[in-house]
Design brief:
The chain is of the alpha/beta class and 643 residues long. The protein contains 25 helices and 19 strands. 48% of the residues lie in helices and 12% in strands. The protein is globular, with a radius of gyration of 28 Å. Bound molecules: 3-hydroxybutanoyl-coenzyme A. Its main location: other.
Amino acid sequence: MAKAKVTMEVGNDGVAVITFVNPPVNALAIQIFAGLKEKWNEAAMRNDVKAIVLTGYGGRFSGGFDINVFEKVHKTDDVSLLPDVSVELMTNIMEDGKKPAVAAVEGLCLGGGLELALGCHARIAAPRTQLGLPELSLGVLPGSGGTQRLPRLIGLPKAIDMMMTSKPIMSEEGEKLGLIDAVVPSKELLKVARQWALDIAERHKPWMRSLHRTDKIGSLSEAHEVLKLARKQVKQTARNMPQHFACLDVIEEGIVHGGYNGVLKEAKVFEDLVLSDTSRGLVHVFFAQRATSKVPNVTDIGLKPRPVKKVAIIGGGLMGSGIATSLVLSNIFVIIKEINPEYLQKGIKTVEANIRGLVARKKLQQDKANKAFSMVKGVLDYSEFKDVDMVIEAVIENVPLKQQIFIDIEKVCPPHCILASNTSTIDLNVIGKKTSSQDRVIGAHFFSPAHVMPLLEIIRTEKTSAQAILDLMAVGKTIKKVPVVVGNCTGFAVNRTFFPYAQSAQFLANLGVDVYRIDAQIISFGLPIGPFQLQDLAGYGVAIATGKEYSSAFPDRIFKSPLLDLLIKSGRNGKNNGKGYYIYKKGEKARPDPSVLPIIEESRRLTNIMPGGKPISITDQEIVEMILFPVVNEACRVLDEGL
Ligand SMILES: C[C@H](O)CC(=O)SCCNC(=O)CCNC(=O)[C@H](O)C(C)(C)COP(=O)(O)OP(=O)(O)OC[C@H]1O[C@@H](n2cnc3c(N)ncnc32)[C@H](O)[C@@H]1OP(=O)(O)O
């Protein structure tokens, strides 16, 4: 990787083009800011420079501030490692400087990158450039004036939405909103930006300082209403996220006391947030997610992923149809095999419903949906398996059935075909035992709903070849999942880590703690639903089947509760039949079902673990710890065993 640097070239037209160079995403490292300051000051001083164009090297403007610096701050607790650029560089030198500056943005323009562009006096973009302020997803807020300048350019509601969701928009939308002054073909980007900068210098175009604008913000009372609504939404969607509330406070400061005061408060709050536990956690997640794409002896031995164009899914149930949906949405041809026309029809209909759901939620355009519909085909036998590149078996968790399927597919598929199973618990060596192709046997564990959840757990055995692992990782990336390669054990890494979660919840319920209180505390801690509602959603059959696997694999740390059996006996099966710990009615929110309480009482009577026969007294904090600490312990075991 080239060393981070900033270059400047002054043309005969009197425009200085300042370029920052730090591939692959031109992250704004400390030396980039130092270089920018130096070059900007030089351009300001030189008589032959009339205007400035700011751009990024290699077709990507910038992926934002260098996140490695956050990591260093987290290790040292030393916030002085953060560059102090918001006021001095971006406001005083750039925005209030004596020469006009135009940002020429392309590819990526995120975080601090967009903030640099906002500090310029106009922005020209190439088509489909991503523009966004994703800082909240790292536990911080935009720290270089973004909280102040973005609302002033595009209005409060849209600016708040972009910051709260951390989702980028495209330059075409940016142009409509007033964030971008013109979208031009990539090859004309610099030419147009240069001319634009000269036009500003000669007063043919307005010299706009974003921080001084007020025209898009509306009246104070309107702004208060927008902020009130935003706070209400955050309470529902991110109630434990300090950065969301802090960001709204900082925006409000600028609305009430002016942009400059907003920038000052922003810088102060930014430092506080960098040191928060939330930021430490989310920055860890950022690097950890990327580290998953580097697997020793797989991604570093010069192998190239082979193309996977056609995939067969065996079983068109909830998982199979969800996986099929993911694949066809990424232009991979899918055949779904079922055992009878009725099941097959149901599977195909589920794929169609999944795709239609995305269109209805405006996440997919109709023409792309039509293309996806055309990529899936249902079959009842193996005759179309002769040219598939991968099979993903997604039938019920039944060892003999899976073994037979693997014997069959080994016979009918081409020799390069990857033989994958979507099992969530069963040992892959057992599944592939009766084949002689164990180097091609691999786990492809998706999470329900498979077309929505990003995680793809890839399970390797000692015999799985590096090529098969690499191919599945590449498919995972193509279908926009986060593929994580793990070792083979009961429950693999994810469910193995989480089995104590349901166990502890059952343990507490049998100790007399109210199940709805437990769910509420876990939600309040930040999980989307609690353990009992999760059981309702997954169905009790799954919990009982997997529970048996864990009992035999880890007998020394199992709590056996009769509650699920009692629930099933009383005709309950969770969301499936509308009756579980909660009542489920179409179109209504799930609500607690008081008639379940005698069944829980019966379970308590049978387990008889309440001290003195009375419910234990426990604080809310202890509930969270009793449920999640065992999960942390199990995660440590998973790491310790090298899985
Ligand atoms: C003061 C400011 O307000 C504060 C900030 O700006 S905070 C930073 C805000 N920016 C962000 O959150 C963007 C983070 N980056 C991303 O979302 C994505 O990397 C991206 C959309 C830019 C590119 O995605 P993609 O092309 O898939 O590449 P991806 O694999 O993620 O990244 C490529 C490499 O660049 C690194 N990288 C990406 N953005 C980075 C950043 N802002 N800082 C440091 N490294 C970064 C990645 O770690 C990865 O490194 P690796 O190859 O060694 O693993």
